[in-house]
Amino acid sequence: MSRVLIWDLPTRIFHWLLTIGFFVSAAMALTANEESSLFTAHMIVGIMPGVLVLLRIVWGFTGTRYARFTSFLFSPMSLMRYILGIWNGSEPRSIGHNAGSSYAIFAMLGLVLATSVSGLLISQGIEAAEELHEISSYLLMLVVVAHIVGVVWYSLRHGENITLSMFTGRKEASADEAIASSHPILGMVFLLLISFVTLRLFQNYNGTTRSTTFPGLGITIPLGESEGSDDEDNDDD
Ligand code: HEM
Predict the structure, then answer these.
(1) What is the pTM of this model?
(2) 98 C-alpha to center of ligand 1: Å?
(3) What is the pLDDT of residues 77-103, one digit of tens each?
(4) Do residues 12 and 165 touch, judged by C-beta distance below 8 A?
(5) β-strands 2-5, 170-173: how paired?
(6) H/E element holding 67?
(7) What are the boundaries of each domain within the chain?
(8) Which of 166, 168, 183 to mutate to test the pocket of ligand 1 (most atoms within 8 A of CB)?
(9) Is 20 helix (H, G, I), strand (E, B) or coil?
């Protein structure tokens, strides 16, 4: 056994950009006044995790061994066995995602997408979106806390710094368990693409129309808090 490559670079970049996007947009939303420019920044930053998850879904079907969804699809029975194993101290160490983390991961991917999309729909005046945005964002915070507690618990239990492996991509395993390449070029393209999109969303912001434009696609994204459809002063234009 030696330290071999497990997580490719696109997966690692996805993870840390998602973490930054989550904490920055959550901090902005929890501290900013809804009329402030900081809140507008929250709406722009909040688009980024949604885009990241869409790219991660593509990578989940096309990526390397442990990044593929099929490598961490576990039945509810496997989850029960894993939880029972935690209870009696017999749950095994895992190379890729384990049954416990996999359910949290799928929940986070779904909730991030729901939070980003519902956030965008609020500005379109869809009232139900506001409630969905609130519910999904608080649920996401809960799952993220559970995820971090799980990571700390696993690291202590197995004496292995798995957070570090999300940076280096490496874990203690046998050579035949390693992935062949970390796909560094794709990882860099991924990083540049997300940075470019986020930067352009800020640059394209128009304070008069309270909207921005998605780079490359030319789609206008309204960012003003639209009043509900039952208001007389509906300002659609
Ligand atoms: C500082 C806080 C965080 C740490 C230390 C951390 C650490 C980790 C680690 C070690 C893994 C691999 C788990 C495994 O072996 O199964 C992982 C996976 C993951 N984490 Fe985190 N995480 C953090 C924050 C977050 C946040 C805020 C989110 C979501 C908003 C998140 C979403 C995910 C996802 C989706 C995966 C799966 C990665 C993939 O396969 O693409 N993490 N995290």
Answers:
(1) 0.93
(2) 12
(3) 999 999 999 999 888 899 999 999 999
(4) no
(5) antiparallel
(6) none
(7) 2-222
(8) 166
(9) helix
